[in-house]
Amino acid sequence: MILGILSDTHGRFAAARKGVELLRARGATYLIHCGDVGGEDILDLLADDPPAAAFVFGNNDYERDELARYAESIGVKCLHAFGTVTLDDKQIAVTHGDNGSTVRRILQAQEHDYLLLGHSHVHGEQRVGRVRMINPGALHRASPKTVARLDTESDELIFFPIEI
Question: The pTM is what?
Fold first, then answer.
């Protein structure tokens, strides 16, 4: 499966739209947003036909109950502050990254293939034991603005800059 990963949109619709369009053009069939969504219009971008997307809350997502209800109404899975998605028999943990104890717990447990997180606004990746930790970067207050594409079958990861 081709997974599109984005984070830290902070309600910046134009940047989020370009990021989602690029990921879909590069074959993404499932999107994961790693928090600091910023509004319902960003969730609308994740919902495609058929919707195949999930997201977590970030530390700047204040209207959580409303976002969760809206996401459910459009078929986007809300994982709240932390959740797991299984795609291609891969266990994918998703959290925003602002809670260090959650990140440490996931890495210590070594139960997931991937840990997707944002928060730092800096793209990058590293392996901790069996867990590949991936931060797609951010689409707000980042230079460059980036998203990531992960092929869960081949484990190929590509970061793409987004020009606004």
Answer: 0.97
